Amino acid sequence: MSDEVKAYRDPTEAESRAMALATERQVQRPTRARLKVKQCAGGVLQLTSEHGQVAGWIDQLQEALGTTSTDFVQSAHFQLESVLRIKGDVHASMEAVNSSLALIEAVGAANEVEGAMAVQIACNHAASLKMLARSQAHAEDGQTEAAAAYVGMATKLTRNMTTVIEALAKLRGGGKQIVEHRYITVTAENAVVGDNTSAVFGGVHQGGNSKNVRQPRESLAIAHTGGETMLGKEPGREALPSSGPEGEIPLSATRRMEPRRAARASQRSVQGRAPNAGTSGSPAAGEQDD
């Protein structure tokens, strides 16, 4: 047995399950179109396939852009390639081109209008990431103002991409507003919402066909067993005596009938007239009869 140390560890059981599930899902996903660029004489760039089935490859590119026009496909690619190309390079890297092409194909354009919007989404996405990379480079060099400017550009590009996505959604929806109505069916044990959600007393239980986890409390049950009426006087018992005198009791007046400021003002006016009370014609305190 070799004494070499393993470069990688064995995956855990949870990782193995996750990878197996991912493999099953990857089989169901469609394979995206790929291309490569060949430079011909005179510096002319030509789109070519990575395999020999050129006719099927062209159909896949046209389907990704929702068109039957090869000119539309070529024009869209060169517009995308001009955004992805780094300054000084002859053409953009194939990794960047094929990555953007996968994003375009994921939009699932139904016609040339949606295909053009898919190209705009991919271009704005690539350009925003490029601006963020430049912002990081300037921030590392201490050029904070330039870094902030590139962040602003990236933000605007991201907003443009979001605007195109929203416009695409409105185009596909035909400008119609969808209103969702839900109904609730209430029974003695639970309430079933229109989306087949069962609400149980004391909690919410998903699924209309499954059993309720908690039963309603007996105190919440509404039923009439028959027999004597519960309301009214109980026979053989005397009524409780009243806590107050018989008849109506008039309510006392409020403690202060006027606002606080007005009460204080009248009190001050009375206090101010008190020293001059003897001038009103009544005898003074010293002139009173013994």
Q: Between the first and last Cα atoms, what is the distance in angstroms?
A: 136 Å
Taking the sheet with the most strands, its summary is:
4 strands, antiparallel
Mean pLDDT: 77
Helix content: 40-55%
- Side-by-side strand order of the widest sheet: 3-4-5-6
Q: What overall geometry do the principal axes of the alpha carbons give?
A: elongated
How does the helix and strand content classify structurally?
alpha+beta
Element order, helices and strands?
Answer: HEEHHHHHEEEEH
- Helical segment count: 7
- What portion of the residues fall into strands of 2 or more residues? 5-15%
Poorly predicted tracts of residues: 201-213, 217-225, 277-290
Rg over C-alpha atoms, rounded to the nearest angstrom: 43 Å
Structure commentary:
With 290 residues, the chain is α+β, with helices and mostly antiparallel strands. Among the domains are: 161 residues, no CATH class; 29 residues, no CATH class. It has 7 helices and 6 strands, in the order αββαααααββββα. The strands form 2 sheets. Strands 3-4-5-6 form a 4-stranded antiparallel sheet, with no helix packed on it. It has a two-stranded antiparallel ribbon with strand order 1-2. The longest helix is centred in the middle third of the chain and has 30 residues. It is elongated. The C terminus is likely disordered.
